[in-house]
Amino acid sequence: MFPEDMNHYDFPLCIDTGHLWCICRLLDQDFHAETEKFLKGGNVEMIHLHASICDFDTPKEKLHDGHRVLSTPNVMDLPRFVKNCVGYGVRHFVLEIFDATPKDLELAVQWVKG
Predict the structure, then answer these.
(1) Coil, helix or strand for 15?
(2) Distance CA 7, CA 44 (A)
(3) 8: pLDDT strictly greater than 90
C-alpha cells in the first residue's frame, strides 16, 4: 500500500524498509519520494530497518525482502532514509535483521544522530 492508501487513517504506521523497497521497485516508484509521502502524513511512528541486496537490475520476479545487515552493499541509501525519518520525528527503529551484530546498532545510531 502506498501513502495515498494509508495517510487518511488516524492510526500509527510502521514502515518496513524491505517491503517498501520491493514494492517501489516492482511498481517503478521512487523509494525516497514514497517514504517522504508517508512521513508527511504524520502517522509513521516506527521503522523496521534492514538492507536489501535487490537493486535496479534485479528482475521484478526475483525481488524479495532484505533482512540483511546494514553494512550490506546496497543502493537503498539507508543513511538518507533514516535521516529523513528522523527529520519527521520518527523515534522508533527496529533492526529487523536475523544475524545482526553490534556494528548494525552502531550504524543505526550513527545514522539517527546524523
Answers:
(1) strand
(2) 9
(3) no
* DSSP letter string, 29-97: --HHHHHHHHHHTT-EEEEEE-B----TTS-GGG-----B-TTS--SS-HHHHHHHHHHTT--EEEE--
What CA dihedral angle connects 13, 60, 58 and 6, to 10 degrees? -10
The secondary structure element, H or E, covering residue 26 is: helix 17-26
Q: Has this prediction a pTM greater than 0.85?
A: yes
What contacts 52, CB < 8 A, 6 or more positions away?
17, 18, 21, 22, 64, 65, 66, 68, 72, 74, 76
Q: Most distant CA pair in the chain: distance in Å?
A: 38
Taking residues 30-48, what's their average pLDDT? 95
Report the alpha-carbon angle 93-98-101, nearest 5. 75
What is the C-alpha separation between 1 and 20, in angstroms, rounded? 9
Which residue is listed with cell 525516497? 32
